[in-house]
Design a protein that fits this description.
149 residues; alpha/beta; Rossmann fold; globular
Length: 149
């Protein structure tokens, strides 16, 4: 059984952040572990948030952005549709999260994710059975099952 891990945009952004070398190292480690296990899940929201930051903070070029979108496409299996938006409203009411965090949680839950990888929510928190993991507090090997090949 494949473990599904929803990756928040902050993990993706730190993987390219030269100004935060330890967070960059940890993000790259997590992304590589998820890629090797085919466990990563993102939503269109994560792709859009990442692109905005790449443009605003990293001065990314159009070819770099296109390459990023192509790379993220296989991971983009979490929906953002009217049902997810309605679920996000319930998430926001229940846990009092900010709107964009509520939408991330709703998309991750709708995609059947086991974990939500983010630094923006409380590490270890259980959200309808999905566990929040702060990638900067845990190594992938302490959370993910061993690879089987």
């Amino acid at each position: 059984m494949t473990v599904k891990v929803f990756v928040d945009s902050n993990v993706i952004l730190y993987a390219r952040d030269q100004a935060a070398p330890e967070k960059r190292r940890k993000s790259i480690e997590w992304l590589a572990a998820l890629a090797s296990r085919e466990s990563a899940v993102v939503s269109p929201q994560v792709i859009n948030e990442s692109i905005r930051a790449f443009i605003d903070k990293m001065d990314a070029t159009a070819p770099e952005l296109h390459t990023f979108v192509v790379a993220m496409t296989p991971w983009c299996t979490a929906p953002v549709d009217p049902q997810v938006i309605a679920r996000a409203i319930d998430v926001r009411s229940r846990w009092l999260f900010a709107w964009w965090d509520s939408l991330i949680v709703a998309a991750a839950l709708s995609a059947g994710c086991d974990y939500l990888l983010t630094e923006d929510l409380q590490d270890g928190q259980s959200l309808e059975g999905m566990r929040v993991i702060d990638p900067f507090l845990h190594d992938p090997g302490s959370v993910l099952p061993a690879e089987t090949r």
